Predict the 3D structure of the following.
Amino acid sequence: MDDLGFHFFPSLLLSLDALLLSPPWPSSPVNPRASLISLISSTVIAFLYWFWIELCYSRNGFYPYPIFSLLNTPQRIGLFAASGVAMWAVGAGLRWCYRVINGIEADPTLECEEDKKAR
């Protein structure tokens, strides 16, 4: 039940908040490289978390999750790289769900070149 309180319920409630209670998102990203920036940011956060876990291990003598004691360093790199990509994919999925549920409010000041050419 603790895992539900630490992971599931916060994820569920924050997703519902983003989908149902957030102000409108622009129809296109302000920065054309927003997707790449988001992917890099997510992966950096995942690796910073890994460094934090290793610091905790160095002080406590055990990992907070048993899987880390089963993996070697290359496997951990793969795990945290995949976690960063998964975090990015969940963010993209939430943005897609937001568009499906709420639609899009077009803001001409935020349109990208492709949107302008489509007209």
Q: What stands out?
A: The chain has a mean pLDDT of 85. Residues 56 and 63 are 7 Å apart (CA to CA).
